[in-house]
Design a protein that fits this description.
By secondary structure, this protein is α+β, with helices and mostly antiparallel strands. It has 3 helices and 8 strands. Strands 1, 2, 3, 4, 5, 6, 7 and 8 form an 8-stranded antiparallel sheet that branches. A hairpin with a 2-residue loop joins strand 4 and strand 5. The two termini are 26 Å apart.
């Protein structure tokens, strides 16, 4: 089996957000009982803001219900399982519950949960740090 060398290419903030917007799911990372917790979720990108839906009992809802919100990370990727080529984007920012009734209804119309159950809360993640890499085939330069 021949292995193709892979290189990482840094992506700009705009390239990273465009790729994030092309993905339908990702992973939200937050602190739960002083330990890291990760949950797969589907999302939409509204300009630069990541929007997810959750239910009342979800751990992330309790953290984002605070006035200052909660610091979270969000990751999405598209990496081929055979070639291991693709991209990965990580966003670090502040997550807050969306409370405006009009905005809530708009997001509920555009973001359909992919799990059963009542997903009655909407969380917005405002990115502070956006990093992305593309994994490409190629030989390292001189």
């Amino acid at each position: 089996m021949t292995t193709v060398p892979r290189l990482t290419r840094r992506l700009t903030r705009q390239e990273s957000l465009a790729l994030l917007g092309s993905a339908s799911m990702g992973r939200v990372v937050f602190t739960h009982h002083a330990l890291p917790a990760i949950r797969p979720v589907n999302h939409v990108l509204d300009e630069d803001t990541i929007i997810i839906r959750s239910h009342l009992g979800a751990a992330i809802v309790g953290h984002t219900d605070q006035a200052q919100g909660a610091v979270v990370a969000y990751e999405a990727d598209d990496i081929d399982p055979v070639s291991h080529l693709g991209w990965s984007v990580v966003v670090t920012g502040t997550a807050r519950l969306v409370r405006d009734p009009g905005v809530l209804e708009r997001y509920k119309d555009v973001l359909r949960p992919w799990v059963d159950g009542e997903m009655d809360h909407v969380v917005s993640i405002t990115p502070d740090l956006v990093t992305g890499v593309r994994l490409v085939a190629g030989e390292p330069g001189p």
